[in-house]
Amino acid sequence: MTIAVPQTFDAVLSEKREEVPGVVTMRLAPVDGRKLSFLPGQFAMLCFPDEPDPQRKCRAYSISSSPQVTDYIEVTIKIVKEWTSRMTSTAVGTKLQVKMPFGRFVLDPTCRDHVFIAGGVGITPFAAMSSFLAATKPEAVRATLFYSAKTPATLIFRERFEKTAREWPELNLAFTITDKEYSGADWPGHRGRLDAEFIKATLGNIAGKKFYLCGSGQMMAGIEEILESMGVAKENIHTEKFG
Length: 243
Ligand SMILES: Cc1cc2nc3c(=O)[nH]c(=O)nc-3n(C[C@H](O)[C@H](O)[C@H](O)COP(=O)(O)OP(=O)(O)OC[C@H]3O[C@@H](n4cnc5c(N)ncnc54)[C@H](O)[C@@H]3O)c2cc1C
Description:
Radius of gyration: 18 Å
Largest sheet: 6 strands, antiparallel
Bound molecules: flavin-adenine dinucleotide
Strand content: 25-35%
Number of domains: 2
CATH topology of the largest domain: Rossmann fold
Order of helices and strands: EEEEEHEEHEHEEHEHE
Distance between the termini: 28 Å
Structural class: alpha/beta
Strand order of the largest sheet: 4-3-6-1-2-5
Helix content: 10-25%
Number of helices: 5
Number of strands: 12
């Protein structure tokens, strides 16, 4: 796998959809029709072309669409305050500026047993990685996705991952619901925070596995501590911090 040289281009916002409340996917298609190339897990800089203030111009977003699709990329944005509200309110048909691809948070080609651990909107690079693995089905490779959310309704891309796992049964979904107040009988899966017990029970052992962590700095520090307590070596833990 080669890392493509970053390029800057105008892109039209061709589609927008709400994934869960407060989280919006935006599809960006190059105006000049160029084909896009990136590795799953890499990110794009999304910019307002006419913003004069460099602090308010661009933000980084992991590409959530599959690299098999080359006509556009999708990014999935959690609405926080001003910048994210302004960006996600942009009308379909508007021209934005994109710079991509960036980052080294990508699948280790020597590994056959990937473990993805996501917190909140940190699920985005794993959407691209899982779709890529399901499309390419590399021999004897498997992946486990740990993802916690407060309630089933706030699991971003739940249906997409379930569909991907049906297409590629080597993807094991380990979702957990953390809201103690949530009493819905419709949730058949695990409940409670991501802890060593749940991770060990799901994985069995840690031999030959690479761990990929993505989310807030606070969430990742907690998970890194858990993994180290389980004996996972630092060099087998890859991280992408969103903030
Ligand atoms: C490599 C990389 C990839 C990223 N990928 C994504 C992605 O796929 N999706 C995504 O939504 N973000 C992603 N981010 C984060 C993104 O770049 C912005 O930092 C984020 O959208 C918030 O931008 P902002 O502070 O300008 O937002 P504003 O809406 O202007 O909010 C500003 C305020 O909100 C606070 N804040 C910022 N983020 C959060 C948060 N998550 N929870 C609570 N408060 C917060 C800030 O401290 C600040 O006070 C990524 C960041 C990096 C570095």
